Fold:
Amino acid sequence: MTKQLAYHLAHHAGTTQNISQIVDSLKRHHITTSNKTVDFYLQFLQTSFIFYPCKEYDFSRRHVKSTNIRYYPVDPSIRQALTLKKNVLSQRILENIVFIDLLSQGYQVYSGRIKDNEITFVAIKNDIFTCIQIAYSLADDGAYRRAISGLRQLSAKYKKLLITVKPALNYAGLDPDIEIIDLYSWLTN
Structure:
């Protein structure tokens, strides 16, 4: 059961899930289980520091939800090893890298939601909220607008950050409230 659950979490790393969805997915793969059993194994995988939970922060209600959790492996290579995916860098791996880096810097890290828009991470440290959107690629203006749509809905009291794989100099300064930084600069800063 531990292996099947770890495989499921690795395959769906960074996607919002709840225990019932995980149970249904395991049952589709002919693994009979219950919500209580999956919860027990999830706790095991978390306390053994193999997967970290990332709960959702709801800006409209200003609270952390206990359901709809994203799970990230402690190391992106765990996902690649369990799922046999050989991609060097993807949106999910980029999120995984930033998530682990934020934890290592002492942030409390949540996924975010404001109205119909998701915010990749809400990082809180010393009561300061940093709202981070991850964009693998900003190939065109439409991709840029989609990437910042949730950040634009937040009030000016939040620090807003857009992290991309490559420097996005052509979009720098378009929205003075949103700092754009590439992954390398983020990790070495």
Q: What stands out?
A: Residues 86 and 182 are 23 Å apart (CA to CA).
